[in-house]
Design goal:
Blueprint (H helix, E strand, L loop, with lengths): L1 H5 L12 H13 L4 E5 L2 H12 L5 E5 L3 H4 L4 H6 L2 E5 L8 H5 L12 E7 L12 H14 L2 E6 L2 H8 L3 H5 L4 E5 L10 E5 L1 H13 L8 H13 L4 H15 L14 E5 L7 H9 L6 E4 L2 E5 L6 H15 L16
Parallel strand pairs: 2-3, 2-4, 4-5, 5-6
Antiparallel strand pairs: 1-7, 6-7, 8-10, 9-10
Helix pairs in contact: 2-11, 3-10, 12-14
């Protein structure tokens, strides 16, 4: 990947002169069945410019209560786009079209008009769950009948594609706009691509400029994304298999529900233990196993291209040992090691 970056044919992307960036944008747009694409520094910026391109100031977006768009993007929709949000919750973490239908405010009502719905695929905090294509298709039909735009936060859309075998265009044509990450599972150092119609992408390009996201010789980064698409999409199945193994071998601890491991994320539910998420994360980090607390009693484990079978074995040993005994105050104070 670094060799590909060094060989990149670059130009000034602010003026549309970087051929490697253009090649990446065209390729991702084609993969998802859309007219055009836009390369951006991050998934957060990709989500924000996509939604701001379809939602006017004062408009409303609906999304899941734990969606990245509303929980981990620093309030950007409101701060930069003047967009309000309302959220839904479901028992299983998957979209429920009837719930969403009941939330849509039409034009002309005293309530704020609903302009767009954001769906995260895969759903991160629920554990990398994959929304079934049938439900997404029903949501598309609802959106078409109500005039509401659909955006897919597809940071992990590649995982859904590999895990289910669903063709990428089948996902892409459901949504007006889609953002996909080249980092995370694909292993590029930086970058996301937003796709949509040529008109929407042109508007998103203007919004990218406003947000300070335009870059000059960005082909060195786009080249990493092209390499990732060539070499790292098909291997995501390895990450899924390792996540399944991790979940299966920790099932005896009572903190993992194996049926909810759809892709590369395993969530440890500590509610029936004496551990807090912070204490368990710190104790595991003291043994060189890194994880993330996503709630006071929930810990996220993620498999990716740098995680080997030996790493899975080590994680199983460490978490089995820790979960089998009472947490101590000292374990909760363990220092997180350097990466």
């Amino acid at each position: 990947m670094r060799a590909a970056m060094a060989r990149a044919d670059v130009g000034d992307d602010v003026y549309g002169e970087d051929r490697t960036v253009r090649a990446l944008e065209e390729r991702v747009a084609g993969m998802l069945g859309h007219e055009a694409g836009l390369f951006l520094p991050s998934g957060t910026m990709a989500n924000q410019v996509a939604v701001q391109a379809v939602v006017p100031r004062g408009g409303e977006v609906l999304c899941a209560a734990d969606a990245h768009f509303v929980s981990y993007e620093a309030g950007a929709a409101a701060a930069h786009g003047g967009i309000s949000t309302r959220t839904w919750t479901t028992e299983d973490g998957l979209i429920d079209v009837d719930t969403i239908a009941g939330m849509i405010h039409p034009a002309g009502s005293f309530a704020n008009q609903t302009s767009a719905v954001v769906v995260e695929q895969t759903a991160n905090l629920p554990g990398g769950l994959i929304h079934p294509l049938q439900r997404l298709t029903a949501l598309h039909q609802l959106a078409a009948s109500t005039g509401v735009a659909l955006h897919c936060d597809g940071a992990r859309l590649w995982h859904a594609h590999i895990a289910t075998g669903t063709p990428l265009p089948a996902y892409g044509r459901i949504f007006d706009t889609v953002s996909v990450c080249l980092s995370k599972g694909l292993g590029a150092p930086v970058g996301s691509v937003m796709v949509g119609s040529a008109w929407l992408v042109a508007e998103a390009r203007r919004l990218r400029q406003r947000a300070g996201g335009a870059m000059r010789q960005a082909g060195v980064l786009a080249a990493a994304g092209l390499y990732a698409l060539d070499h790292h999409v098909g291997r995501l199945g390895d990450d899924h298999r390792r996540a399944q193994r991790l979940a299966a071998e920790l099932a005896h601890t009572g903190v993992v529900e194996t049926g909810r491991v759809h892709s590369n994320i395993v969530v440890l539910d500590l509610h029936e233990t004496r551990w807090t998420a912070a204490a368990l994360v710190a104790a595991a980090a003291g043994r060189d196993v890194l994880s993330v607390a996503i709630a006071p009693r929930r810990v996220r484990l993620v498999t990716h291209l740098d995680v080997t079978e030996r790493h899975v074995e080590r994680a199983v040993r460490v978490f089995t040992d820790l979960l089998g005994r009472h947490p101590s105050r000292e374990e909760g104070k363990q220092r997180r090691p350097g990466r």
